[in-house]
Amino acid sequence: MAFVAIVPLSAALASARVHCADAYASPNEHGEGIVNLLAVEIWHWVSSERVRLMFIQSFLKWSETAKVAERAQAAAALGKAYVQGTMAEEERRSAEAAMAMLMDDASPKVRIALSEVLCRSTRPPRSIILALANDQIEVAGHVIALSPVLNDSDLVDIVATGRATLQQLTAHRRPLGVAVCAAIAEVGGERAIMDMLDNESAGVASISLKRLAERFGDHPEIRSRLLDRNDLPCAVRQSLVERLGAALAVFDLAQSTIGGERLRKVTEEACRDVTLKLAETVPANEMPALVEHLRMSGKLSPAFLMHALCSGNVDFFAAAMVSLSGIGDARVRGLLVEGREVAIRALYREAGLQPNLVGPFLSATLMWRQASKSEKGVEAAEIAERLILAHASDAENDPDIGDLLRIVEQMHVAWQRQASRARAMRLIAQAA
Pfam families recorded for this chain (predicted)? Predict the structure, then answer.
């Protein structure tokens, strides 16, 4: 079995005698062939450029007749010697020239051998690493997945090639920069997207998460991964909930079980409930984005706004009024907290509420204002009940008010159930 021996050049250079590049094979004590890559003496008067030239020429001459396995061994040995970082300057340049020559070797096994030993080191020249990264997948895989020499710009270019396997290898890198994640989000395939979302070190920005939801909101596995993220913007989460609801509404098994129309209503109610929960928990810095998303998608219905108002979610309700009316945030909040009735009516009309619904909204606003000043605070079920009683006669004569109050009644029942459950849990805890 042949093995490769590389004789260091530093000592020879120091003594003005350079051991370099005449390749020949000679038996060792066991009769094994030794491929000696650095064995010809060049006297001190030979220039460094001449040394490198003779090294390359001799290596090339040897590689023409050497077997693939021997060339692969030589490539691995050369790469290992290089990444150790002990070569003198002239040795290093000669080694780089030889590695560049190996990029043209006809056998991928030779390039694979070099890729395997260089992929984890910061020392290899960028030109060599980039050449390996653009080779066939068996060669490129090691450096794309592991090489610290590749920067974000290089990785973005690799992702942009559209080669699915290379995108997957890039998505597995740790850490994975924001720019690279953005490129994968924009042009990456399904598998690369999932690998990136599974990569805890990936810096996926909010704008990239939004783009992923736009591209793959109907892909069950990607949608699930997005919904599991704590950093998913609320507006994006709401859009995915809608996509999920739409998918469930056409699910064959569910349709055959409860019927298409009933399924549609159930999914709509479920999506609305989830969106309402989001509105209650959304961070203040994301509130405007969620409101704008709901406005653009037509989700800021009177029923939705009434739910927010009755439940005391004044931050969301105020943000919605700002978006719908175009009036400043401070002015809107001031009107809701201490504005006169005529000014509040004007605000709601400016926000686009139907004139016949302004009355119930004004009543709910005043009830919320009164409850917020009491010691027990805002109780949504109580406000809903009072609102139903206050406008019962209006509901009989106006279908729009009737529809709105029916939804308020549904909310009232749901809040009563929640209150009953909470009361039962307190009793259980006291009895324990």
Answer: DUF2336
